[in-house]
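Before drawing any conclusions, I looked closely at one protein's amino acid sequence and its backbone structure tokens, quoted below without any editing.
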Amino acid sequence: MELGLIGLGRMGANMTQRLLGGGHRIVAYDRDPGAVHAVANAGAAGVSSLEQLVEKLSPPRAVWLMVPAGAPVEQTIHTLAPLLSPGDAIIDGGNSYYKDSVRRAASLKKQRLHFLDVGTSGGIWGLKMGYCLMIGGEEEVFRRLEPIFRTLAPEDGYAYMGPSGSGHFVKMVHNGIEYGLLQAYAEGFELLHASSYELDLAQLARLWNHGGVIRSWLLELTEKALAADPDLTSVKGYVEDSGEGRWTVLEAVERGVPLPVISISLLTRFRSQQEESFSAKVIAALRREFGGHAVKSD
């Protein structure tokens, strides 16, 4: 098939390579000419503008966006949509908020354009292992573009979720679960690291992946990281929180669904981003006031 791809960062560039390897024709654009040049060398048709990208695609066109959620997606669609023709499709493969995807699909429908929201998981390993794709939008458009999804995903690695927004909704929850899993592994390995035993944590991660109930790909990555740096001295304990974790917790509040593990894992990330916790200072000060407990000074 033929596909336009906008956004050639780590995931976008790798997806382009995987699609080229599957025999698809890719017209690629990025604001960085160097990124366009790199995928052009791999066999894509590189262009320097959205206008050129649309001109090089045959209708009905399909254009996949791999740009950051929020304003970048909004601006790209705003610029791209007037260049397209009725029946063309825009695919958002980024981590957009599902309510934004519902709104965008409705707006584009008025312009007789189709929209698919595709939750995409796989990170930098997707080129080799394939991407897990959670696809929302019109089923007829999904079926038309299915060869693209089949190439990007591993076996049984893509599925149609339902109407507009459902793909990004499922990906939002997927990432919320990821928060909880990462927190559980992190806490367990912190306790192991603090143990009086001289434990080889990389060996433990490898061991648990052979028959252990908690075996997983994340545990394989834990082994890899700890084998390279057993005390993780090269890593600062600062953890970014992406929008999906916040959206998952907000959705739970709206629907009255208890998500204690995911919620606490999100708040723990907030704590990691503080140079020093004011709340901890308050507690220390109060312990000094009511009990005469010693405090540490800066």
Notes: The chain has a mean pLDDT of 95.
